[in-house]
């Protein structure tokens, strides 16, 4: 069973195209060989992309960003206990409900909710995640800690992570460097999270992104961590990305049984991502099959 473990979907074509345009991929440097998707990222687009790839399921990762992506007030490292952007509360709750409704209507789509510590306080955020999982079909949580200006050890996040760990809900986090040099999403930034929540099923997206050279050491230090191949497999061979041979070696180093296929649709197509996985040198058929869906089947309990 093939599973795309990293997709994004949008209520309208205009919304999807706006997000893709607003987030050009620059961290790997120039690379002419990247296969891009030309779909807008609607629900219908996502279903069609999965069908074209022969995939049974797609994990739909939530994203909620405040205008201008504000930092915690006062230059503080952590978000305050009293959320400074509570006016966006209803919009965030409605977005997560929409995401879960999409999953209820299309059983092949598995919704992962999202949060913002500047919008919901820690206790309410944990309760919201619990409700979404218990009553509305949420299968996990996605956190883009760069967009959220969120250090993973922020106290505002810990009750949420505890709620996810208690329910065996996977948490997917963006992984890679940021242009501010804050280190919000570097692999090592997530070490305190796994130390505090040893039962947490944490998935580092992009196999570390442009910080991929740190992924193997992180995997060795944290044997419960998972990784996905989204984006990085499309950029293999770019100046700040591994070569295809280096990417195969990295998969072997972290353990192919801990690596998930992911396209990052609508930036890229699931079918192209599968082809890129198939072209990586040195991996066996069993390892490719596990990455293409077997590992996600275990992680998600499908």
From TrEMBL:
MF-aspect GO terms: carboxy-lyase activity; hydrolase activity
CC annotations in GO: cytoplasm
GO biological process, one term: secondary metabolic process
SUPFAM superfamilies for this protein: Metallo-dependent hydrolases (SSF51556)
Entry keyword set: Lyase
Domain Amidohydrolase-related: residue ranges: 3-302
Cited Pfam families: Amidohydro_2 (PF04909)
Protein's recorded name: Amidohydrolase-related domain-containing protein
């Amino acid at each position: 069973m093939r599973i795309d473990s990293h997709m994004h979907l949008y209520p309208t074509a205009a919304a999807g195209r706006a997000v893709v345009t607003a987030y050009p991929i620059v961290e790997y440097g120039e690379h002419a060989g990247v296969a891009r998707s030309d779909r807008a990222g609607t629900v219908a687009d996502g279903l069609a992309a999965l069908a074209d790839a022969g995939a049974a399921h797609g994990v739909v990762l939530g994203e909620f960003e405040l205008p201008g992506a504000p930092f915690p007030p006062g230059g503080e490292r952590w978000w305050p206990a009293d959320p400074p952007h509570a006016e966006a509360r209803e919009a965030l709750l409605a977005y997560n409900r929409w995401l879960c409704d999409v999953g209820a209507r299309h059983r092949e789509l598995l919704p992962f909710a999202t949060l913002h510590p500047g919008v919901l306080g820690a206790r309410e955020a944990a309760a919201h995640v619990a409700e979404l999982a218990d009553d509305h079909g949420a299968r996990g949580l996605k956190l883009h800690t760069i967009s959220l200006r969120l250090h993973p050890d922020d106290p505002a996040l810990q009750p949420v992570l505890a709620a996810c760990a208690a329910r065996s809900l996977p948490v997917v986090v963006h992984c890679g460097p940021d242009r501010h040099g804050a280190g919000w999403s570097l692999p090592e930034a997530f070490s305190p999270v796994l130390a505090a929540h040893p039962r947490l099923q944490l998935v580092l997206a992009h196999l570390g992104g442009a910080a991929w050279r740190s992924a193997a050491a992180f995997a060795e230090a944290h044997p419960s961590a998972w990784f996905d191949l989204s984006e990085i497999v499309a950029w293999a061979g770019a100046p700040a990305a591994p070569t295809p041979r280096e990417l195969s070696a990295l998969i072997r180093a972290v353990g192919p049984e801990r690596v998930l296929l992911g396209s990052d649709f609508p930036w890229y197509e699931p079918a192209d991502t599968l082809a890129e996985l198939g072209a990586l040198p040195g991996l066996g058929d069993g390892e490719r099959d596990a990455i293409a869906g077997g590992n996600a089947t275990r992680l998600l309990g499908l």
